[in-house]
Amino acid sequence: MLGHLNSDAIASRGTTAGTFPDVIVGSLHNHTRYGESGGVTAFSIGTVSCNQGNDYLEWDGNNNFHPTIGQNMYRVTELENGCSRIDMIGMSWLKHGFCALQGTLCGSCDNSGGGGCADRLGWNCSDPYDSFYNGQQSNLGPRKPVNASTGYFPYPFSAPGFEPLLGRRLQVRSADMDPSNYPPSTNSFFVEGMYVHPEDAVACMGFNNASYRPISISGLGNNGFDINLESSTRQMEPAIFAWKEVDPEVEITEVTLSNCAQSGLNETFFIGSKVCELGGGMWHYEYAVYNLDCDVAISKFEVPATMSANVSQNLPKYHSGSVVNMAAWNDGIDSSTGMMSWSTKSFDEDQDANAILWNSMNTFSFDTNSPPVEGEATVGLFKTGEDIQVNIMVPNAEPVIPCTGDLDGDCSVDGIDLAQILGNWGLSGGDVNGDGNTNGEDLATVLANWGCECG
């Protein structure tokens, strides 16, 4: 059901009562721009939901049997080195649904949930939320208390006060949209909407709750930038697939943590990857880790690598007090494991650490001297501390533990390393122990590890 449907309407799923509802984003249909403040622009995106299941979906604004609705923005960039990357550049708080109209975007809507703005959505029926309602700040709640794996959230939500213009809305740094920084010829932009509902989650239908749509950027002189919805809504596909839409060579791997029918949990995340040869024996690696609905969250991403350069990361811009600790992740080669690693603090260390929460994405990249092979990446789960192994394209099939004293990076300690020690005596070029000086201690280390080969 993760097909690429380029349409703002879907086929009817049946006309007789059954056992489950299934809410999707049928259309991202309009937007509102609220203005710019401090280099940040606030938007909201209108969403039309569809119940394509075969039972009613509760839609009661007076309890927690209603949907929560998130909105995000992404940019796909064609890099000068021939690669491409996707970055999450904006996110909103969650609109809380309050009642449902019974529209016909999904089909005939013969099973209406009632007249007017009803407290349930019939099957084959649709409900439109204009961008005005999806940007109504008093009805936007924080993401973190919502468990997207089960659909549960405490009612009513609690949150700090909001800044009148920007607070809680879809916030995007104006510099991330500026055509002078990201020209249209090499950049594509997208918005995404996602619905989470407890009945949808219980029915194990959370895997298709996100949809995305292309947008373009228009300038407003000294008043920042606006967006324009383009083409049509890509139904039941999260926005990480926008990367593959722009660059068909991107590989996207779907990972399901548990069998929902057995565990009762919707838990799906995706890893996107693209590798490009740079020349001179170097390769560029781009990875995007997208958490669709895993409440457990993600706090680590690792791939086997022997060396790294130009290491970078892009993290979601949480705002309005939703995430306390927005520190960058630690990154670099872990010499004890032979892995290129990005990580934040564990749940035991800091429950407010900057993990990849549901409906959000981190992007990681680096250069290395190894061509791509099929191997295992490691994804660390935030709340449990568990590591998950995922088969994707990586620099090395197995982790390589480097040798202490291997100064030239050829995975062995030999005469070339000894020559580097002697040639840099008293300087820093042969420093092994990190004290900034090449001396007898470094020579002793090389001699002690003579003949060592990476393993």
Commentary on this structure:
The structure is a single chain. The protein has helices spanning 131-134, 198-202, 240-246, 260-263, 415-423, 440-448; strands at residues 5-6, 23-37, 40-51, 57-58, 68-78, 84-91, 94-96, 120-121, 126-129, 140-141, 170-173, 187-196, 210-219, 225-229, 234-235, 251-256, 268-279, 282-291, 298-304, 309-314, 330-334, 339-343, 360-368, 373-381, 387-394. The protein is 8% helix and 37% strand. It is mainly beta. The model is unreliable at 1-17 (pLDDT under 50). A hairpin with a 4-residue loop joins strand 21 and strand 22.
Architecture blueprint of SSEs:
Blueprint: E1 5-6, E2 23-37, E3 40-51, E4 57-58, E5 68-78, E6 84-91, E7 94-96, E8 120-121, E9 126-129, H1 131-134, E10 140-141, E11 170-173, E12 187-196, H2 198-202, E13 210-219, E14 225-229, E15 234-235, H3 240-246, E16 251-256, H4 260-263, E17 268-279, E18 282-291, E19 298-304, E20 309-314, E21 330-334, E22 339-343, E23 360-368, E24 373-381, E25 387-394, H5 415-423, H6 440-448
Antiparallel strand pairs: 1-15, 2-3, 3-9, 3-11, 4-8, 5-6, 5-7, 5-12, 6-11, 7-10, 12-13, 13-14, 16-17, 17-18, 18-23, 19-22, 19-24, 20-23, 21-22, 24-25
